[in-house]
């Protein structure tokens, strides 16, 4: 075993209470950063979940549409114009909008209607656990997520309610389709979505364009832009980025999450720096002895950085275990905390950087050390 | 004639700044030869420790020249001085300065580790050095598990393991009882028999005079006297293995 590692680990463990305080500080800091960044990722995924589950090569939408939930409308004639463009195989209308769900036991709750063409697909409910997509063809049939049963005042398949004084019946149940706004999604056909939201029969919210096999998507996109006025034509990736950007940055939510993460990093850095500094101060005599023995400054810096890295690894492992528990606990909530391999790797790198930065004060202290002090102590 | 392992010529050293500045050394010249144990004696405040710091390249002189292992220390920066120390000087301190969290063997190995010697051979060398000072059975003991005399022997092993040309000891017997003090001086006198090593011991205790080949007296920052002596301790002829001397001491203690 390297003597540098041995010296570093024993310096740390020499005062166990202080070491435990350091590790707790790192764990607190990294769990805070994990939660904030995990929320950021979870939020980013949730706000684009509809885009991610739509089956389209291109999205056509009113110009300036900021996100999927934007209720701006297109004239349905644009659908036929799009279909006339060379390379367009399908142009599927999607209608979205808010509506009031009349709870059977009394009262109302807002819901978010998503209507699409059942035969063509486009944007249909996924993760079905009960019922079927075909059942949505039945007049008044809707699909809802089982996590919203209480909110909607229903018990499952066959439950009925009213939207805009029209009877609806739950014919399909999904799992895990949750909205970050906490407003339940209600899936239905395009026509009934118009009826439930009050959208005019000549209007639609989106056109989901499918390109004919073998045709270049970019060329179709250019033709759509050239031939349709007052529309944006975006790829799913572009629309996803635009939606994420709106919800995460234009609303300030993302900045708040990043600020929380940054605060966590600062707290962690200060705690580790304070510990390393006081540990170095306690062992100043030993560092002076090392220096008197002719060790280079680099050797001593390695001991201190090794102390920082040992703290980082132990703190990170514990924080990751807690982070995974938090991820599991929030998996079925409206805003799940997401942990990806990239985030885990990034957090490890951040922990190491944080601990190494924390070592600077201690390094400055030993850099100034006078080896001849060993004669006076 | 044995070569000088350290040589100081007209060394001047000012300590402090402004009105509080004092001249600790006032033109000291001293040469340390291999195969010789030199005692540096003088009252408190005479400049002994300052001279030791300068000879050991821990401190740069304000004037004069210092050559260590044939290399001039003049104008050297902190890192160059550290390099001279690790290549040419071994230190023994009054209060041992062992690392409490490391075993005796690791304390000794540390002197090799700072020189970049960290192979399995370094472990063997450290154990050999401990055996030389009679502590082969204490390899895995921590400093707190050792007596004062044993701790100082570990410090001696640490000082000699890298085979430095100069071994500088600052009052190595001051914290020890008479018996252990004699044992440590016996060790140092044995080490000084090797022409590859020159040993300089700063001391107050006149009882250790008999171990010296030469005694240098310093007062008020100046060398005021120097006498050559034959090392008075009578030891076995032959290989002069230090271990034998220490074992005798240990037996006497029992």
Characterization of the model:
Chain A has 377 residues and is of the alpha+beta class. Chain A is built from twelve helices and twelve strands. In chain A, helix 2 crosses helix 8, helix 2 runs antiparallel to helix 9 and helix 2 crosses helix 11. The longest helix of chain A has 34 residues. The mean pLDDT of chain A is 89. By secondary structure, chain B is α/β, with parallel strands linked by helices. Chain B has a six-stranded mixed sheet with strand order 6-7-8-3-9-10. A four-stranded antiparallel sheet of chain B has the order 2-1-4-5, with helices on one face. Classes of the chains: A alpha+beta (377), B alpha/beta (254).
Write the topology of this structure.
The complex is a heterodimer of chains A (377) and B (254).
Chain A: H1 3-14, H2 16-47, H3 49-53, E1 58-62, E2 74-75, H4 77-83, E3 88-102, E4 108-116, E5 128-131, E6 141-145, H5 149-152, E7 160-163, E8 166-174, E9 185-189, H6 190-197, E10 203-204, E11 206-211, H7 217-227, E12 231-234, H8 236-250, H9 253-282, H10 284-292, H11 297-330, H12 341-367
Parallel strand pairs in A: 4-9, 6-8
Antiparallel strand pairs in A: 1-11, 1-12, 2-10, 3-4, 3-7, 3-11, 5-8, 6-9, 7-8
Helix pairs in contact in A: 1-11, 2-8, 2-9, 2-11, 2-12, 9-12, 11-12
Chain B: E1 4-15, E2 22-33, E3 36-41, H1 48-55, E4 63-68, E5 71-72, H2 78-88, E6 89-92, H3 104-113, H4 120-132, H5 148-160, E7 166-170, H6 178-192, E8 198-203, E9 214-219, E10 222-228, H7 242-253
Parallel strand pairs in B: 3-8, 3-9, 6-7, 7-8
Antiparallel strand pairs in B: 1-2, 1-4, 4-5, 9-10
Helix pairs in contact in B: 3-4, 3-5, 4-5, 5-6, 6-7
């Amino acid at each position: 075993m390297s003597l540098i590692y041995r010296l570093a680990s024993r310096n740390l463990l020499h005062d166990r209470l202080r070491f435990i305080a350091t590790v707790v500080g790192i764990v607190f800091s990294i769990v805070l950063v994990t939660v904030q960044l995990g929320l950021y990722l979870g939020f980013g995924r949730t706000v684009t979940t509809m885009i991610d589950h739509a089956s389209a090569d291109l999205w056509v939408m009113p110009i300036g549409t900021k996100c999927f939930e934007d209720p701006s409308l297109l004239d349905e004639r644009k659908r036929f114009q799009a279909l006339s463009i060379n390379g367009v195989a399908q142009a599927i209308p999607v209608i979205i909008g808010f509506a009031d769900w009349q709870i059977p036991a009394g009262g109302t709750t807002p819901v978010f209607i998503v209507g699409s063409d059942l035969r063509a697909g486009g944007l249909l409910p996924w993760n079905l656990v009960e019922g079927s997509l075909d059942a949505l063809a039945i007049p008044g049939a809707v699909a809802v997520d089982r996590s919203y049963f209480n909110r909607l005042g229903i018990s499952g398949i066959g439950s009925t309610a009213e939207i805009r004084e029209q009877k609806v019946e739950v014919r399909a149940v999904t799992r895990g389709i949750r909205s970050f706004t906490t407003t339940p999604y209600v899936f239905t056909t395009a026509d009934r979505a118009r009826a439930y939201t009050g959208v005019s029969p000549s209007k639609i919210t989106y056109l989901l364009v499918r390109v004919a096999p073998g045709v270049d998507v970019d060329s179709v996109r250019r033709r759509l832009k050239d031939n349709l006025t007052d529309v944006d034509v975006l790829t799913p990736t572009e629309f996803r980025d635009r939606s994420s950007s709106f919800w995460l940055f234009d609303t300030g939510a993302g900045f708040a999450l990043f600020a929380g993460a940054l605060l966590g990093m600062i707290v962690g850095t200060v705690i580790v720096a304070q510990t390393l500094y006081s540990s170095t101060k306690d062992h100043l005599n030993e560092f002076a002895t090392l220096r008197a023995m002719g060790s280079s400054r680099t050797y001593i810096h390695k001991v201190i950085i090794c102390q920082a890295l040992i703290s980082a690894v132990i703190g990170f492992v514990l924080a990751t275990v807690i982070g995974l528990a938090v991820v599991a606990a929030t998996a079925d909530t409206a805003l799940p905390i997401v942990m990806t391999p990239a985030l885990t790797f990034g957090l490890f790198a951040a922990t190491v950087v944080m601990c190494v930065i924390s070592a600077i004060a201690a390094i400055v202290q030993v850099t100034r050390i006078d080896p001849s002090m060993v004669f006076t102590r | 004639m044995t070569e000088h392992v350290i040589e100081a010529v007209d060394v001047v050293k000012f300590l402090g700044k402004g009105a509080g500045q004092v001249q600790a050394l006032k033109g000291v010249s001293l040469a340390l030869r291999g195969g010789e144990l030199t005692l540096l004696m003088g009252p408190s405040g005479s400049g002994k420790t300052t001279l030791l710091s300068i000879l050991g390249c821990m401190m740069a002189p304000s004037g004069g020249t210092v050559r260590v292992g044939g290399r001039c220390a003049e104008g050297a920066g902190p890192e160059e001085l550290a390099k001279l120390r690790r290549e040419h000087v071994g230190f023994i301190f009054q209060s041992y300065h062992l690392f409490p969290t490391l075993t005796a063997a690791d304390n000794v190995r540390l002197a090799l580790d700072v020189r970049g010697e960290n192979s399995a051979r370094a472990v063997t060398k450290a154990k050999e050095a401990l055996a030389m000072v009679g502590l082969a059975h204490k390899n895995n003991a921590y400093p707190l598990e050792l007596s004062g005399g044993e701790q100082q022997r570990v410090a001696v092993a640490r000082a000699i393991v890298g085979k430095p040309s100069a071994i500088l000891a600052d009052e190595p017997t001051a914290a020890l009882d008479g018996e252990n003090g004699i044992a440590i001086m016996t060790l140092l006198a044995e080490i000084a028999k090797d022409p590859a090593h020159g040993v300089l011991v700063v001391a107050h205790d006149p009882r250790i005079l008999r171990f010296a080949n030469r005694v240098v007296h310093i007062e008020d920052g100046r060398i005021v006297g120097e006498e050559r002596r034959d090392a008075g301790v009578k030891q076995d002829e032959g290989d002069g293995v230090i271990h034998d001397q220490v074992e005798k001491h240990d037996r006497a203690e029992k």
